[in-house]
Design a protein that fits this description.
The complex is a heterodimer. By secondary structure, chain A is mainly alpha-helical. Chain A has 3 helices and no strands. Helices cover 32% and strands 24% of the residues of chain B. The chains are: A mainly alpha, B alpha/beta. Chains A and B meet through helix 2 of A and helix 8, helix 10 and helix 15 of B.
């Protein structure tokens, strides 16, 4: 299940945030602490996750302390989907 | 002419219970700070500076996040007569060693007597220091009292003269590029007097700001002006705003905010990223001036903002423009307060080939330029040629200004003063033209990249890229390309690479991204790897960034 979530997320992030549609993202690759997703795009990620998976990420959670890679983000989504 | 401390003392004595600012912090109730509590908190820091042997006239660098400590440490330095300067706090993406290097460069040039930071950041700050530098002490926030009754008679701030430097504003940039704009009490008050007249500031106004305090727009318009002139301020952190832009709208609605300043990208950002549900019951009709400032202004950005928020009461006449720089304390000109912002439609070809802003002709391609308005009453503008000759109306040249609120100088940087100041005129490095008494800013002479209102020096980025294995010194060019969707510039790096293997090239490209993302304040949007001899150089062998940018754009378009 999280594999599906991860691959959907990976495609979306590469295409819409990084603007490199062909870019492969590893599941443990740092997204926020690496600066790959900069602060201007964190809110995009939250909006996207909500639209796609019906899960809210509060703005106070938009930091590497909450999730920093696809593994962690997918786990968070799955947990909230209950 | 007063000084900061005299003005603050007056507010403390005459309006102790008036709220100076409302501090908005995530997960906490809004925190109103009266002049009484503001001055008491500041006096606690003044006492700490005193006890640590800081002398009036010495510089203290504040390494604190947006919040109570930063406010107290700043005004505490003022009360003590020391010169505060705010350094951006470490972000989660920036490499600590890079931050340390920037701090060490700042210390070397500014020669501060003290640094102020949090207990859990003290070790990081100390790691940037050397035994023989100017810093005598690191003041840690938890060792400072929460509030102290100010004893004005003993405060060093009351013995400062209006001509003395009151604060330094640092532009970003690393070694050799650090320029601290030194401003006197008098210059700041001259700016505030003139700008508040231009704005027709009244006691009913409420300023709402999320802007960082290390930047002139945030520090002057969104912090010092309201506090010194007793206009209520609603202050939130840029860190929170960028994650929740709707909080700006909610704050304006809740406090009946009237004035805000935003960099151009924020118009796009708010228009695109605020959800309907977060705007329930929001009423923006109190906003009377939202000034677009600190990066190139786009008509399209303002329109997108208006369309998004007009249903919530935003009035079209609230969209205003401003041209500002730290070297003039803040505002140089302001547009849109005496009627809608003028939009000058000019002939595109004449503009591009002859550098003339000729009014548009029917059936010929044209472009729309937003006016930055008329200069403040104390500021004179002229447009000059490369040789310093004054140019007539509608001819594009460098914007030069003269006023009674100019910088004292770049702190410890006489070399930079010499470059920027000519016979009492400050050369802004921006290209523009004048028409009908209004200023139109159309480009930049300097190779500066502005991302989200933040100034980025291309040399800093090129230096980072050159450290990547496979990339060679002198064979990288960094520049900005305007992005219509985001309303600001994207950073592009072009690098000449000899290696032909595609996998190797991909690896180099990725490493350049990492180097820039973790070594600077920006995120790199595009890396363009090219072969030998691609990059254009000037006749003296220097990196011709604008020519490289044009060549890149032509190739991308052709591809």
């Amino acid at each position: 299940m999280t594999d599906d979530i991860q691959s959907v997320l990976a495609q979306q992030i590469a295409a819409d945030i990084l603007k490199q549609p062909g870019r492969k993202l590893k599941s443990d690759e740092a997204l926020i602490s690496s600066g790959l997703i900069d602060s201007f795009h964190l809110v995009d990620l939250a909006l996207y996750v909500e639209d796609q998976f019906g899960v809210r990420i509060d703005d106070s959670e938009l930091s590497a302390a909450t999730f920093d890679n696809l593994n962690e983000l997918a786990a968070l989504i799955q947990e909230r989907q209950g | 002419m007063p000084t900061f401390t005299e003005v603050l003392r007056q507010s403390y004595a005459e309006r102790p219970e008036q709220v100076a600012l409302y501090l908005l912090q995530n997960g906490q109730p809004d925190c109103p700070l009266t002049y009484h509590s503001l001055l008491q908190g500041a006096a606690a820091y003044a006492q700490a500076y005193q006890q640590n042997g800081i002398q009036p006239g010495e510089v203290v660098i504040l390494i604190l996040q947006h919040g109570r400590d930063l406010i107290n440490a700043f005004f505490g330095a003022v009360l003590h007569g020391a010169i505060p300067s705010i350094m951006p706090f470490l972000t989660e993406k920036l490499l600590p060693e890079r931050y340390r290097a920037d701090l060490a460069a700042l210390v070397a040039i500014t020669r501060p007597a003290a640094l102020v930071t949090y207990p859990d950041f003290e070790a990081e700050v100390r790691a940037a220091l050397h035994p023989d530098d100017s810093v005598r002490t690191v003041i840690v926030s938890d060792q400072v009292a929460l509030s102290v009754e100010p004893d004005f008679a003993s405060l060093g701030g009351l013995r400062r003269s209006p001509q003395d430097i009151v604060l330094l504003q640092h532009s970003s940039g690393t070694t050799g590029l650090q320029k601290g704009v030194a401003l006197s009490h008098q210059a700041v008050f001259n700016q505030l007097e003139n700008y508040s007249q231009t704005l027709r500031l009244v006691p009913q106004d409420v300023v709402v700001s999320w802007l960082p305090l290390y930047h002139d727009m945030g520090l002057i318009a969104g912090f010092l002006m309201p506090i010194l002139l007793q206009t209520p301020l609603v202050l939130m952190s840029p860190f929170e705003w960028v994650r929740a832009p709707y909080k700006l709208m909610q704050a304006v609605s809740r406090y009946r905010g009237t004035l805000s300043w935003l960099p151009n990208f924020a118009y796009n950002f708010c228009a695109q990223k605020v959800r309907e549900r977060d705007l329930q019951d929001v009423d923006l009709s109190s906003w009377r001036a939202v000034s677009n400032c600190s990066e190139p202004m786009r008509w399209e950005s303002q329109q997108a903002f208006l369309e998004r928020f007009a249903p919530y009461g935003l009035r079209p006449e609230a969209l205003t423009t401003c041209y500002a720089m730290a070297e003039n304390v803040f505002a140089v000109s302001q547009g849109g307060l005496d009627g809608p912002v003028t939009v000058d439609e000019i002939d595109r070809d004449a503009f591009q080939t002859e550098r003339l802003a000729r009014p548009a002709q029917p059936a010929r391609p044209s472009i729309k330029i937003l006016s930055a308005g008329r200069p403040l009453a104390n500021t004179r503008l002229k447009i000059v040629s490369e040789h310093g000759k004054e140019l007539p109306e509608r001819v594009v040249g460098e914007v030069a200004l003269q006023s009674d609120c100019m910088l004292t100088g770049y702190y410890h940087r006489a070399d930079a003063d010499e470059k920027a100041l000519r016979a009492g005129w400050f050369l802004t490095g921006d290209y523009g033209y004048l028409a009908g008494g209004e200023l139109y800013v159309v480009g930049r002479k300097k190779d500066l990249i502005i991302v989200g209102g933040r100034n980025i020096y291309p040399l800093d980025l090129e230096t980072l890229a050159m450290e990547v294995p496979g990339v060679h010194a002198g064979r990288v060019s960094a520049f900005g390309v305007f992005n219509d969707e985001s309303g600001t510039e994207d950073v592009v790096i072009v690098a000449e690479v000899d290696i032909l293997d595609p996998d190797e090239r991909q690896r180099i490209s990725d490493n350049i991204r990492i180097a820039i993302n973790r070594g600077s304040a920006v995120a790199l949007r595009s890396v363009y790897l090219v072969g030998q001899h691609w990059l254009v150089k000037t006749s003296s062998g220097k990196n011709a960034r604008l020519a490289n940018r044009d060549k890149y754009l032509a190739e991308i378009k052709g591809a």
